Structures are given as structure tokens and as C-alpha cells.
Amino acid sequence: MSAIAKFMPAAPAILQVRGLSKTYKGGFTALKGIDLSIAKGEIFALLGPNGAGKTTLISIICGLVTPTTGTVTVDGRDIAHDYRAARSKIGLVPQELTTDAFETVFDTVSFSRGLFGRPRDDAVVERVLRELSLWKKKDNRIMTLSGGMKRRVLIAKALAHEPEILFLDEPTAGVDVELRREMWQVVRGLRDEGVTVILTTHYIEEAEEMADRIGVITGGSLILVEEKLELMRKLGHKELVLQLDAPLSALPPGLPPQGLSLSPDGLTLTYTYDTRAERTGIAALMGTLAENGLRIRDLSTKQSTLEEIFVSLVKERA
User: Fold this and answer.
1) Which residue segment(s) compose the domain that 262 sits in?
2) Do 165 and 73 sit in the same domain of this protein?
């Protein structure tokens, strides 16, 4: 399978990136041969450490930065050769809270619609504000809003011209947990309406909660793109946690030499195994415990988190 085929979604693609690279005048290479396709109506999470190339990639797709090589097409429109048509299909919510502090919520969102050549349509602006729970704040000046509400205004501005793709750069940065979950609901609602959502985030649980597919970028290279559940199945490990009826001072002989640990109090055995393995070794482990007369009071399993997988992938490429 080719590198491009690996990163193709099953559904028709609305965004296609081919052979994208960016080297700045000073010689720093921010992106290296990125190939990526995003399906219409999916939520795609782009994960990577600081300096990995996430912002550069988004900036090129949105036509804000010129690539050294490669192409970007948005619903069949080339961002370089048909900029206005391609860019009109994209809404961008930056990480920074960049809004006119003295404008009202309604006016700043309405103005954003006009920037993309859309005719004035108060009904569309009202719908967007209501969907984001901003309608009651429509006459408030931006400077009077909380940080969470300002973040919603940025999303409203990005949606005012009715784009088909919405980029969210760290959408819940600086937002408390309750508001973060409300924002997740907003994003899911947009996806249900057919908007394709692409987000970068430092909150791994955000990607784990919301994304259909996940891409991992590090050192300017896109090292992996996979459906979230498949990624966790392929790269994840499980832990079998056994609560013993009586404490052990040491592991008895005959137990697996790897993947097994004993808690300091001697009451908990933890066995880590590969979910992809043909034989997990659990049956042999339980048999050996029984042969040694060890009684199990309780047992449970724990799947690797996306954060653990992400850290492992980045370390491998470091």
C-alpha cells in the first residue's frame, strides 16, 4: 500500500494535501512531504508536540503561508490557483483571542461574513449565534465577555460565511472543564450538520472523546493517520490487574518473565499484554497462579489511553 493510500479516508475527500513541504529562508524545514486526505463530515484531530508543524500545515491549507512544494485542494479547488473559491469553503478559528474588543457580538460576526463576499443575512448570523448559545449576548461588546464566550465568538466568526470545513486550533485552550465539554457538544453538532472539523489540541482526551480519525505529526513529518478506535486497537496494550487474597513477598517461580509486576504491598499483580498477540499468555498465567495456591480476590482490565500511545509514538521518532 502506498503512503498516500494509507492516509486516504473511506468517504469522499473534501480536503486533499499532496507532497506538501515547507522550508523557510533560514533553512529550517517545517514540513516534509505531507500527504493527507480528509473526508467530508468527519472530525479529524491533529496531534503533535510544540514545533511539530501543526500550525504551518494549517496555515498553508488556509492560504496564509506558501508551501515550498506540494498542492492543497479544497473540494476540488486549488488553494494556490483558485484562492477565493477554495478559501471561502474554510473557516479558521485561531488559538489566539483576536477580536475587536469594542464591537458587539452581532456586528463582529456579521462583518466576518462580509469579508468573504457573502451578502448580509441576519438570519444566518442569528442561527449561528443561537447554535453557540451567544444570542443573548448579541448586543454585548466583546470586551465584556468571559474567555469561554470569546472563544465561542471566534467560532461564530469562522462559521458566519457558512464554510464546509472548520479548522479549530486549540479550541478549548484556557477553558474550564465544564465549558470544554460544552464546546465538544458544539463541535459534534457542527459535524452532524455536515461540517468537516479539523482540530489541533494539546488535550489528548479531547481527541479521544471527539475524533473519528487521528493524525500524529512530529518533526514536520506525518508519521501516522488512523481511525481512532483502530489506532487504539493496533497500538494499545491492556493490563490485567489481579487483587490477591493474601500478600506476596516476591513473584513465585514459573510466572511469565516479562510484563508482570507486583505492587509494593504484595497484594496486586499487574500483567501487561499485547492486544494483537495470537496468545496473550493470560491462560498460562492463571494456571501458574493456581498451581502456586494463590487465590484471586478480584480482577479487572485497563486499556492503554490515547495519551500513552501518542507519547510512545513521538518518543520512537525522537
Assistant:
1) 237-304
2) yes
Same domain flag for 184 and 122? yes
Q: What is the CATH number of the domain that holds 198?
A: 3.40.50.300
Burial of 258 from C-beta contacts in 10 A (0-12 / 13-18 / 19+): exposed
239: which strand partners? 272, 302
Cα 304 to Cα 229: distance, rounded to the nearest angstrom: 12
Q: Which of 294, 283, 296 lies closest to 256, judged by CA?
A: 283
Q: Is residue 109 part of a domain?
A: yes
Q: No. of H helices and E strands in the chain?
A: 11, 14
Question: Minimal CA–CA distance to 252: which of 287, 280, 300, 279?
Answer: 287
Within a domain: 310: no
279: domain CATH number is 3.30.70
**244 and 228 within one domain:** no
150: helix, strand or coil: helix
Whether pTM exceeds 0.85: no
Confidence band for 257, pLDDT divided at 50, 70 and 90 = low
Coil, strand, or helix at residue 16? Answer: strand
State the virtual CA torsion across 244, 247, 251, 256 in degrees, nearest 10: 10
Domain boundary among 217, 232, 247: 232
Instruction: Return d(Cα 38, Cα 76) in angstroms, integer.
Output: 12
pLDDT in tens, 50-96: 788 888 999 999 999 999 999 999 999 999 899 999 999 999 988 77
CA 150 to mean position of chain CA atoms: 22
